[in-house]
Amino acid sequence: MNPHLAPVEVPDPAALGQVQHLCDLADPYATGADADTLFAAAMAETNAWHAARSPFFAALLQEQPEIPAPTIGDGVRTPLVPAAFFKRHEVLSVPRDEVFLHLTSSGTTGQKSQMFFDRWTIRSAQRMVARIFDHYGWITPDRPVNYLLYSYEPAPSLKLGTSFTDNYLCDFAPARHTTHALRHTGSGHEFDVHGCIAALQRYADEDAPVRILGFPAFLYFTLERMKAMGMAPLRLPEGSLVVLGGGWKGHTDRQIGKDEFRAAVTERLGIPAESVRDTFGSVEHCVPYVECAHHRLHVPVWSRAAVRDPGTLRPLPYGEPGFLHLVSPYITSVPAQSVVMGDLASLHPGEECPCPLSTDWFTVLGRAGVSRNRSCAVAAAEMMKGMS
């Protein structure tokens, strides 16, 4: 068995048996009445788990129940916790000596979401990623690849979730060579655009596929610089893959549409559009959402999504924009099983996507309002100012 797909055991099998069963489902996009029943039972277990260990969550359960979203299920309690809550509060449901990993969401300054993971929680989330990559055929232990990572080069004190995730993704195919775009200087990170260009030129002359991971703005900035320098388009080896995440926060004035972005990648690097995938995720909710070949963010079996009215928090029907509400019972370390993101999105039924998957999918429309909080992407994007 691939080690990334190996079994992981919940902290208390007697109390969390349905959570275990749900997270053990191997098909990342399974649907049906059985999956829905199992999801509801797992949510009941994780709610009880947190209520017994977190006074904060126990108090939430005593308040007036939220209006259930049809896409999540009638009778499934999902007390609404805004993601921003974790920027100001540390709320754990496990003893601190059981914290296996501590990650943050922000860059060099600004308020940070402090998220704490026990071994089950982070390993379970990693297994979800592995199953989705396996679903798309992206786990290739016998085929080395070259990596270009548009994320932060690891440093001893670095706890950013984006850096952790991108480096984990490198485990799915052995690395022939790895280049980091955001180089550690000893006192911070700097964007090395010329190092990225040199790496792409070198990789284009080799026979190994290339995997480009990380922030989309940095990749696009690299393509712009290559064009400005009069470089001829490159043709990266067959099987190359682009998996991006983190958005364009801080540089929305330079953001282009996704179709235009993918076309630029195809033109400058020779990677077909179906191999350029966006993702969505956060340190507050580590369930992975990965685009299908038609570029829809389908909801995997281990989670459910809804969209809520920004004014009333009532669930909205398919197609209407509102706050993205993500729910999953996998997390046992922090009561973050029901998080209202700061992102505006619209939700759509599976049949509106031409791909074979039948789960709901969502489109992220942008951040809600203007916040003083800075995400990883904001901090990273600030490095680009003055470079073009």
UniProtKB/TrEMBL annotation:
Phylogenetic classification of the source organism: Bacteria, Bacillati, Actinomycetota, Actinomycetes, Kitasatosporales
Listed GO MF terms: long-chain fatty acid--protein ligase activity
GO BP terms in the entry: bioluminescence
Protein name (database record): Acyl-protein synthase
Organism annotation: Streptomyces griseofuscus
Domain spans labelled Acyl-protein synthetase LuxE: 78-382
